[in-house]
Write a structure and sequence with these properties.
Elements lengths: L2 H15 L14 E6 L2 E6 L4 E7 L1 E2 L18 E6 L2 E6 L4 E7 L1 E2 L8 E6 L6 E6 L5 E7 L1 E3 L13 E5 L2 E5 L5 E7 L1 E2 L8 E13 L7 E12 L5 E7 L1 E3 L13 E5 L2 E5 L5 E6 L11 E10 L4 E10 L4 E7 L1 E3 L1 E3 L2 E4 L7 E5 L2 E5 L5 E7 L1 E2 L8 E11 L4 E11 L5 E7 L1 E3 L18 E5 L2 E5 L5 E7 L1 E2 L8 E6 L7 E6 L5 E7 L1 E2 L8 E5 L2 E5 L5 E3 L3
Antiparallel strand pairs: 1-2, 2-3, 4-5, 5-6, 6-7, 8-9, 9-10, 10-11, 12-13, 13-14, 14-15, 16-17, 17-18, 18-19, 20-21, 21-22, 22-23, 24-25, 25-26, 27-30, 28-29, 30-31, 31-32, 33-34, 34-35, 35-36, 37-38, 38-39, 39-40, 41-42, 42-43, 43-44, 45-46, 46-47, 47-48
Length: about 550
C-alpha cells in the first residue's frame, strides 16, 4: 500500500499539473503548465515562475479527462478561470474580462461564442446558453444542455445549434428560432451532407404484472433513424442501432448506411430503402472501398456452428476473400483510419489459431505460422510472437511462454524471437507509426529485465532495468532497478542513450519529465518534484 499515495499524486500531477507541450502563440510566450499549489491552480513557465498566480479552483477548463487544449490562452489572450465555484474570463495579466458569475464556462470558439450556464433561480436547475466576448447572452440560458457542433465551432455551417429542452432534443438557430422541434430522446449534430441520427422512445405493453394483476408491464424501446435539416425522416426510426460511416459523414461514399434490428444487420440508402436483406451474418465493419469484413454461418445445428468463418464481401455480397478465417484484423492505425489492408495491400488474418498475411486475392503474403502478429510499421517491420511450453520447476508444470521478434514483409526474421516483450513506440500524441523511437531505439524485455536495442537490433542500453520508460525529447529515460524486490530496494533515476546514469538512482519512485522539466519523485516517503539536474524544485513533503 506504500505505492498508493504516490500513484494518486502522480496521476494528478500528470493529468492536472503537467499537460502536454502546447504550440506557442503570441499569448503563450513561454512553454507553460497548469500547476497545483495548496489546492489552487496557477500557470507556471519553464523558468518555474508563476505566469498566473495559483489562486483559482479551475483554469483553462482543466479536468481529469481533458487533453484537447491547443493553448491555455485563446486567440484573444484570455483564459477561463473559476473562483468560489463561479467561472469567468481573465487575461495573462489576471485582469477580469468577464466577471465570475457563471456555473460553467467553455472556451470561446472561432466565432467568438462560448457555452455558459447559470443556476436558474426559479427551478434551481443548471441552465445553458451562449455568450459573446462581452459576456452578453446571445442565446439565453434556458436549455438543459447544449451540444457544440465541433471542438472549435458551437453553431454548424448552417447556423444550427443542438439543444435540450424539457428532456427532448432539437435544433435552434443563432436567433433562438426553433429549426427542428424538440421531439427526440437523443440526437446527433448534422453531418456534412445534412443528415443526423435521431432517437425516439416507443412504449409497448408487454404482459400483465403477475404480482399486481391490474397493472400492465410497460417497457421503453429506443428506436433510431435519420432526419434531414427540415426534420423529416429520411430513414424511419425503426432500427435498434445505426453505425455512422465516420465523424463527418453518416452515409458512406456510396450512400450506404449500416443498421441493426435485433441481432441482424443490413444496409439502407439515403431514401431509407433496404439494399441488403437482414441475415445472420455478423457485419463487423462498414464498407471500405466497396468491401467489408463479414462472417458466415454455413450450417448450424442445435449444439454446434459448423463451417463458419470470416471473409471479405463486396457490395453485391460476393465473397472477395472466402469466409475461411478465424479472424480478420481490420487495419486501423499508422496514420490511416479504418482500412481493410495496409498501404501495400497486406491483410492480417488468423486460421487454425495462427496469424499471417494475405492480399485481397486471397494469396498468402506471409505464412500463417505466428501465434501473435501486428500490422507492419513504416519501416515494414512486424512484431511476431511464437508460443512455447517450458517446464517450471517450482510449480512442476509446463507453462506457456511467448518469444517475440521482428519479421519483414516476406515473413523472414530480421530480429530473432528471443525477447519476452517488444514494446511498440508511441509518441506524445499516441501515434505508433514506427516500432522504434525517432532515433531508432526499441524497448525490449528479456529475463524480466528491460533495455533498448538500436535500429540495427544491437543492444544499446543493457537489459538490466526492472522498470523503464521511453526517452523524452532531451534524451532522458526514467529507469528503475530493484535489488531485493522490496519497495525500499527499488531505486530510480534517469539514464542517457548509452544506458549511463545522468541522475543517480536514489529515488523510491520516479516519473518521466514533463515538457517544462518537472519530474514527480519520492525519496524516503516524501514526495516532490525534481529538475533535470536531479534537484528538488519544491521541497518534498
Amino acid at each position: 500500500m506504500k505505492n498508493l499515495p504516490f500513484l494518486i499524486i502522480s496521476f494528478l500531477s500528470v493529468v492536472l499539473s503537467y499537460s502536454q507541450l502546447f504550440p506557442i502563440n503570441k499569448y503563450n510566450k513561454t512553454n507553460s503548465v497548469i500547476k497545483y499549489n495548496h489546492g489552487k491552480l496557477g500557470l507556471m513557465n519553464d523558468k518555474h515562475n508563476w505566469i498566473i498566480k495559483p489562486l483559482y479552483d479551475d483554469l483553462g477548463n482543466t479536468n481529469l479527462y481533458r487533453y484537447d487544449n491547443l493553448n491555455f490562452f485563446d486567440s484573444k489572450g484570455f483564459i477561463v478561470a473559476s473562483k468560489n465555484g463561479k467561472y469567468g474570463l481573465i487575461n495573462e495579466k489576471e485582469e477580469i474580462k468577464i466577471p465570475f458569475t457563471f456555473k460553467s464556462l467553455k472556451s470561446f470558439d472561432k466565432d467568438e461564442n462560448a457555452i455558459a450556464s447559470i443556476i436558474d433561480i426559479v427551478s434551481n436547475q443548471e441552465k445553458f446558453g451562449v455568450i459573446n466576448r462581452f459576456g452578453d447572452w446571445i442565446i439565453k440560458p434556458i436549455y438543459e444542455n447544449i451540444v457544440s457542433c465541433s471542438e472549435d465551432k458551437i453553431f454548424d455551417k448552417k447556423g444550427y445549434l443542438l439543444v435540450k429542452n424539457n428532456d427532448k432534443y432539437g435544433f435552434i438557430d443563432t436567433k433562438n428560432v426553433v429549426k427542428i422541434p424538440f421531439l427526440f430522446d437523443d440526437l446527433s449534430n448534422f453531418d456534412s451532407k445534412g443528415y443526423a441520427i435521431a432517437f425516439t422512445i416507443r412504449k409497448t405493453i408487454e404482459a400483465p404484472d403477475l404480482i399486481n394483476m391490474n397493472v400492465m408491464c410497460v417497457s421503453s424501446i429506443n428506436r433510431c433513424g435519420i432526419i434531414d435539416r427540415k426534420g423529416n425522416w429520411v430513414v424511419p426510426a425503426i432500427y435498434d442501432d445505426i453505425t455512422a460511416d465516420s465523424k463527418m459523414a453518416i452515409f458512406d461514399s456510396k450512400g450506404f448506411l449500416k443498421v441493426r434490428l435485433g441481432q441482424n444487420q443490413g444496409f439502407v440508402n439515403r431514401k431509407g430503402k433496404l439494399l441488403t436483406n437482414f441475415d445472420d451474418q455478423s457485419t463487423c465493419h462498414n464498407f471500405v472501398n466497396n468491401m467489408k469484413i463479414s462472417f458466415l454461418f454455413d450450417s448450424i445445428t442445435d449444439s454446434n456452428i459448423i463451417n463458419c468463418g470470416y471473409g471479405i464481401i463486396d457490395r453485391k455480397r460476393n465473397w472477395v476473400v472466402p469466409p475461411v478465417y478465424d479472424e480478420i484484423e481490420n487495419y486501423d492505425g499508422f496514420l490511416v483510419d479504418n482500412e481493410l489492408c495496409d498501404s501495400l495491400g497486406f491483410l492480417l488474418v488468423k486460421k487454425n489459431n495462427k496469424w499471417g498475411f494475405i492480399d485481397l486475392k486471397n494469396e498468402i503474403k506471409v505464412p500463417l505460422v505466428f501465434d501473435e502478429l501486428t500490422y507492419f510499421d513504416i519501416h515494414h517491420h512486424s512484431i511476431a510472437r511464437l508460443k512455447d511450453s517450458i517446464y517450471d520447476s517450482e510449480s512442476k508444470k509446463y507453462i506457456e511462454v511467448y518469444n517475440s521478434g521482428i519479421i519483414d514483409r516476406k515473413g523472414k526474421w530480421v530480429l530473432k524471437p528471443e525477447y519476452e516483450i517488444i514494446l511498440p513506440y508511441r509518441d506524445s500524441i499516441g501515434v505508433d507509426n514506427s516500432f522504434s523511437d525517432p532515433k531508432g531505439y526499441i524497448m525490449v524485455r528479456k529475463n524480466n529485465k528491460w533495455g533498448f536495442l538500436n535500429k540495427a537490433f544491437i543492444v544499446k542500453v543493457p537489459l538490466i532495468f526492472d522498470k523503464l520508460y521511453e526517452f523524452d525529447n532531451k534524451d532522458y529515460a526514467c529507469a528503475c532497478i530493484n535489488k531485493d524486490k522490496s519497495y525500499y530496494g527499488k531505486k530510480c533515476g534517469f539514464i542517457n542513450r548509452n544506458g549511463e546514469w545522468i541522475i543517480e538512482p536514489i529515488f523510491n519512485e520516479l516519473r518521466p519529465f514533463n515538457p517544462i522539466g518537472f519530474a514527480s519523485a519520492i525519496l524516503n516517503e516524501r514526495q516532490g518534484y525534481i529538475n533535470r539536474q536531479g534537484e528538488f524544485i519544491f521541497e518534498p513533503n
